[in-house]
Specification:
18 helices; about 550 residues; 22 strands; about 35% helix; elongated; 7-stranded antiparallel sheet; 4-stranded mixed sheet
């Protein structure tokens, strides 16, 4: 249902429905009465007796419909027909706040956005918003195939046209001309008349649009994989006894990492990292092992284990030719391993800060300080910490600046959890002036703590020397070891404050070749992640070194 310039010189209107007409083939059907209004049902049944609408059955002149459209001239509402979504097993979701749309998904596969369209519109002098519904060709044809029916477009179209000879020729010299097919069913009616100094064209028609033939299904049978000399089939893959390995670009994982419908939490098993996506207990990939910086290794036999063929076909599009791996370091650290190193150092830092606090009477567990619990990690890995999985999502070398900045923000959120109040209490016990400590942010608090402890370690003091009534010398100085943490903080806010140029300068000063960012920010992320891990490890090691002398 669409219109433009409804009362002007270029007025145009379109009302279109799709009727489900039984029969595999046939002659055009006559124009259906609903073509003009563009709705399945206009207004509500009239009656003042009980049961007077007992036979109410919405239809397009007796035929079923694909979109349930209702209106009364002022208000219109739309939905996918009940028969359609129930027969195809679709699930609706509503999105868009004020501009609400209904979207139908096939959660069995899953396949998202199978059908979608506007929920409603209003009409007061003009249509408040255009309404259009779209549906996957594959699913529409399957529905018609199941019904043994054709999809017939039933529509009304009008347009205000300029007075031109070509249109006058159709009118045959009349001021108002009506044209219908000379033979057979009256499947269209064309009306052209003089109107407002031009010509008003109106057309009512019923046109066959979709026939009940199934779309070819995606199949993994007969796919030729790189490095293999014959097509792969399910039977052949199942019969493999050797470890025929397939290498996939890890972008294969992005679809699963970025959707809440899938589980793609990395798992660490026998010294190896696996990222095997699964879908709600329905199906899963298995033995997808991370190798190199941006590769996933999976045995061919595992790849062909039960799952929708379209998922195997999709995996094939990310396959890497074994010949291209000759110059690839399969032992290079990937982003998941980097995040695990970050988690390891955070667990050590939590233990160290908790133990340091205990020496001055502060009772805080490591989990309270960093948000990560040793026992939980040992028992369930990353399952309880989705922030780790988000940080460890695929990081291609050619990642964009926006992706890089977003990942830096996620990195900062993971490590920057130690309560400021706890750090301030430690510094005050160490002799730092309360007034000077009060206004410091978390990074400067951590830096000050490192300065105090490094000075004690340099003098080989015992841990009981940490508590002091005297102000430590140089406690508020800048510390180069903390530079990566300050850089990460700057990158976290770089997008909002347009300071990316300054951040690149800082990266260069810290030893990173900024020429690499011309090809993407993947290496920059590696540099920042490694720097943050080293900085946090410096703090943890310094605290542990002090605590070891008691």
């Amino acid at each position: 249902m669409q219109e433009s310039d409804p009362h002007g010189e270029q007025a145009e209107h379109l009302h279109l429905l799709m009727a489900v007409v039984p029969g595999l083939e046939g002659d055009p059907i006559e124009v259906l009465s609903e073509a003009g209004n563009g709705v399945v049902e206009y207004s509500v049944p009239a009656g003042d007796k009980r049961g007077c609408s007992a036979e109410f059955s919405p239809s397009i002149s007796g035929h079923d419909y694909v979109v349930a459209a209702w209106g009364d001239g002022s208000f219109y509402t739309f939905n996918l027909a009940e028969k359609v979504w129930m027969m195809l097993g679709l699930t609706p979701r509503c999105v868009g706040n004020d501009q609400q749309r209904l979207v139908y998904d096939d959660l069995g596969l899953p396949e998202f956005g199978v059908a979608e369209g506007e929920v409603s519109s209003e009409y007061q002098w003009n249509l408040k918003r255009s309404v259009s519904w779209r549906m996957s060709n594959e699913y529409l044809r399957r529905y018609l195939w199941l019904r043994g029916a054709r999809g017939i477009r039933v529509f009304y179209y009008s347009a205000q046209l300029p007075d031109v000879p070509e249109v006058r020729a159709i009118m045959g010299g009349e001021s108002h001309a009506v044209r219908k097919p000379a033979e057979g069913n009256a499947w269209y009616e064309l009306d052209i008349r003089e109107h407002k100094g031009g010509l008003l064209l109106q057309l009512w028609a019923s046109v066959e649009a979709v026939i009940p033939e199934l779309c070819p299904e995606q199949t993994a049978e007969g796919i030729l994989w790189p490095g293999d000399d014959q097509p792969m089939t399910h039977a052949r893959a199942n019969a493999l006894v050797d470890q025929t390995l397939v290498y996939l670009d890890d972008r294969f994982l992005q679809k699963y990492e970025q959707s809440a419908f899938y589980d793609s939490t990395p798992t660490h098993v026998w010294g190896q990292w696996y990222c095997s996506p699964s879908y709600r207990g329905q199906w899963s990939f298995t033995e997808c092992r991370r190798v190199g910086r941006n590769l996933v290794q999976v045995p061919m036999r595992e790849l062909y284990k039960p799952k929708p063929d379209r998922e195997i076909v999709r995996a094939r599009s990310f396959a890497v030719d074994p010949a291209a791996l000759a110059h690839v370091d399969l032992n290079e650290e990937h982003v998941v391993a980097k995040v695990q190193r970050l988690l390891d150092v955070l667990l050590r830092l939590g233990d160290a800060l908790s133990a340091l606090g205990a020496t001055v009477g502060l009772a805080k567990s490591a989990a309270d300080l960093t948000g990560f619990d040793h026992a939980e990690v040992a028992a369930n890995g990353w399952l309880a910490y989705p922030a780790l999985s988000r940080l460890a999502q695929v990081a291609p070398l050619d990642m964009t600046q926006q992706m890089f900045l977003a990942r830096c923000k996620s990195l900062h959120e993971v490590w920057q959890r130690v309560p400021n109040g706890y750090l301030k209490s430690l510094l005050e016990h160490a002799g730092c002036p309360r007034a000077a400590v009060r206004d410091l942010g978390s990074l400067k608090l951590m830096q000050a703590l490192l300065n105090v402890i490094e000075r004690l370690n340099a003098d080989e003091e015992a841990s009981d020397a940490f508590a002091s009534a005297n102000e430590p010398e140089g406690w508020n100085d800048r510390n180069k070891a903390m530079a990566p943490l300050f850089l990460n903080n700057d990158l976290r806010i770089a997008d909002a404050h347009e300071t990316m140029g300054e951040c690149l300068t800082t990266l260069q000063m810290m030893g990173f070749d900024t020429a690499n960012v011309n090809a993407g920010y993947g290496r920059a992320l590696d540099f920042v992640l490694n720097g943050v891990v080293i900085s946090l490890a410096t703090v943890a090691d310094s605290v542990n070194s002090l605590l070891s002398r008691n």
